[in-house]
Amino acid sequence: MVRTTATAACTAALLAATSLAAEADPIKIGFVSTLSGPSAALGVHMRDGFQLAVKELGGKLGGQPTEVIVVDDELKPDVAVTKVKALLDRDHVDVVAGVVFSNVMMAIAKPIFESETFIVSGNAGPSPLAGAGCSPYFFAASYQNDQNHETMGAYAQAQGYKKVVLMTPNYQAGKDSMAGFKRHFKGEVLDEIFTPLGQLDFAAEIAKIVAAGPDAVFTFMPGGMGVNLVKQWSQAGLTGKLPFLSAFTVDETTLPATQDAALGLMSGAEWAPNLDTAENKAFVAAYEKEYGVVPSLYAAQGYDAAKLIDGALKATGGKVADKPAFRKALASAPFKSVRGAFSFSTNGYPKQNFYVVRAAKRADGKFATEIVSKVFDNAPDAYVAACPLK
Amino acid sequence: MSFTLLAVQILNGLQLGVILFLVAAGLTLVFGVMDFVNLAHGVQYMLGAYLTAVAVAATGHFGLGLAAGLVGSLALGFAFEVLLFRHLTRRDHLEQVLATFAVILIVTDLVRMIFGPAPLPLRLPELFTGSIRMMPGLAYPIWRLVVIGAGLAVAFLLWVLITRTRTGMLLRAGSTHPEMVSALGVDIDRVFLFVFAFGAMLAGFAGAMAGPILSIEPAMGDNVLILAFVVIVIGGIGAVRGALVASLIVGLVDTLGRAFATDLLRLVVDRSAAAQAGPAIASMAIYVFMAAVLIFKPTGLFTGERAWTRTR
User: Fold this and answer.
1) Cβ contact (<8 Å) for A37 and B219?
2) Which of A20, B142, B179, B214 lies deepest, with the highest CB count within 10 Å?
3) Which family does it belong to (chain B) (predicted)?
4) Helix (H) or strand (E) holding A295
């Protein structure tokens, strides 16, 4: 009896000590994501992936009690800047993570870098932050934006397509997408079609593409635009006839809406649910159990972002204050990515494999992308040489 | 540019125009007859698509789902009118704009909370999944032809309803002389209630018809609403005939602009400049057209007797 009481007292004391420690030094993560508007599905996946990893780690990153403050950037750069400034000045977050869209990233990068806070991107990998404008405070747990488009360009070249038509929305990322595709594609580009951002009916463009008579079409239509394009492509009887190559268009965020219409369409990606690593199998199973849907690459990147921060914190003993030490820890990529091989170039962007993936229906009736072939092996981005960081 | 490509693009333009007409018809009736600015009309388009998608998924039959969607849209129209809009009909336009804008925000977010941000699938009815081969390699979906046909049929029915029936007579009289109509013993508020609910149902019908082509998502009404306002400004506020003609013009100008502006520009400037300017010019085309109409005919193309209903 006495013994039990003593043990209980000890436990209580220990608990008190830990909770005191927790109050003294919790890790605060400011998580920026797009959670409203037509593109919210991407942000929801990325956030859920991140939260899943934190949950699996017992609510801790690097063994430290962790508070994740999620904010919605509404896909508006000005809104994002206001909210990020609040994260930095009011909440004093240790690390910022997330960010789906590059225009948001470009807007919030400056205040974050100026406050000497680290940001771990869960998706956006804009080229201005990869080359001459790279920062010691930036790490991408995702990719450099051009790379998935480059993957499709290289694939089109390898398939021997001679003539292609490119179609993207008329904004910076669309133009970057075409540039990325053309970096490895040496054939003829018959036409470059720019559509207004947010356009929903592609009937006119589809007729134009068919009239041009290409061997294949490459497109980048994120979110609802991609859903519509894929459905209309199928309704025009082109699925399976004219090769449809894309990036960020056919993935697990759009497949629930397009379903059968997307079957067989090809995309460039650095990850797919069936990628064969032990970490990935566990992640996909846990994600499906937790949220009831198949994870997308945004979810995988969010998950990896949390694991990356966790690994770096473990290496520094939970300390972020020593900036060079924490940067060194992050740069060594001290975690097992669901993607397998994963390391950082000097600009904070990953070196990793890229694959061509195809939309398929799984045995359980759910839709997912699956890997067709590897296109790039352990590939760095195209801008790293221009980055002065060592 | 072959003739068949032009024909296909004209069909595409007509189909966009017909969808716009279905939305704009209700909007212009409510605006013209009740002098009510209803920004929430796009929400009714979105709700029609959602109701139909849910009903089709529940019944497994497109026809039944569509019927349920229409009844649901009509019921929602009644509910909106009774709960909110009838209290605003005699207020000024600014208050109507503010209140109906609030409805957009609230309903859009409610739909997002219930159905999630991801688009909802709506399968084509089996009967219309086929396509017609119009040019080499391109199949034209029958559904788009059905949409065109249905829209033109609705236009014809509206014409009969407004010009050939007693209800239409009351509607036309109520739009210009509401006090006189009341004095003759007609419950004008009841007429307005039915006009409003009917307009909501037309918008819902447009959403249901567009559902299999476009993606059904919470914000789908926003783009359509702007185009529908462009249509009623061009056609003349309150003019259903004007809405029909203006919808078809807007649909054609927008589609043909997107299809051919870049190619036409290439004839005069070099390739890269055309690729830059073409899309910009195409997306401006309908607004330039609207500006031109406002300069030369500020009340819209169709006004007065020829407009089916009179305009204010």
Assistant:
1) yes
2) B214
3) Belongs to the binding-protein-dependent transport system permease family. LivHM subfamily.
4) none
Distance CA B92, CA B251 (A): 32
Q: Where are the domains of chain B?
A: 3-307
The answer to whether B255 contacts A227, with C-beta atoms less than 8 Å apart, is no
Contacts of A5 (CB under 8 A, 6+ apart): none
- Which residue ranges make up each domain of chain A? 7-143+275-344, 148-269+357-379
* Contact assignment for A196 to B279 by CB distance below 8 Å: yes
What is the signed CA dihedral for B146, A231, B4, B153, rounded to 10 degrees? 10
Q: Do B138 and A237 touch (CB under 8 A)?
A: yes
Give the phi and the psi of residue A195 in degrees, each rounded to 5: -110, 155
Residue A112 has pLDDT above 80, yes or no: yes
pLDDT of residue A20: 43
In terms of CATH architecture, what is A148-269+357-379? 3-Layer(aba) Sandwich (3.40)
Model pLDDT for residues B121-135, shown as the tens digit of each residue: 788 877 887 788 877
- Report the 10 Å Cβ neighbour count for A341: 13
Q: Which residues of A touch B (CB under 8 A)?
A: 35-38, 40-41, 44, 170, 192-196, 198, 200-201, 203-208, 210-211, 213, 224, 227-228, 231-232, 235-238, 241-242, 253-254, 256-259
Topology agreement, domain A7-143+275-344 and domain A148-269+357-379: yes
